[in-house]
Amino acid sequence: MSVRAFNFRGLMAPTFTAFKDNSSQSVNYEVIDPYAKWLKDKGIKAVLVNGTSGEGMSLNVAERRPQLKNGKRHDK
Fold first, then answer.
1. Would you list the domain boundaries of the chain?
2. FRET label pair with 71: which of 16, 24, 29, 65, CA 20 to 30 Å apart?
3. Splitting the chain (76 residues) into consecutive groups of 10 residues, what average pLDDT does each group show?
4. Angle at Cα 43 formed by Cα 36 and Cα 21, nearest 5°?
């Protein structure tokens, strides 16, 4: 396995995971796009998804994957 250097310059924001205020407290995927756009508009060059306050590890893969996919859409 080869190792590539991580050469990043700019601001990387650790993002939060938004939850709905309902009985199941499911992930609120609807806020990801506006939040990602807001971060980009503020000059944030990269985000750390599912890695801030531990909520990522409390979610299963099916709940984490859409957050990553939605975040990657704004990676341009």
1. 12-72
2. 24
3. 82 83 86 87 84 70 74 58
4. 30
Query: Facing residues of 10 across strands?
Result: none
Q: Nearest CA to 16 among 66, 58, 52?
A: 52
Strand 46-48, strand 12-14: pairing: parallel
Q: Which position has the token pair 């050469």?
A: 7
Which helix (DSSP H) or strand (DSSP E) does residue 27 occupy? Answer: none
Dist CA 47 CA 33 (whole Å): 13
**Is residue 48 helix, strand or coil?**
strand
Q: What is the model's pLDDT at position 41?
A: 92
CA distance 39 to 43: 7
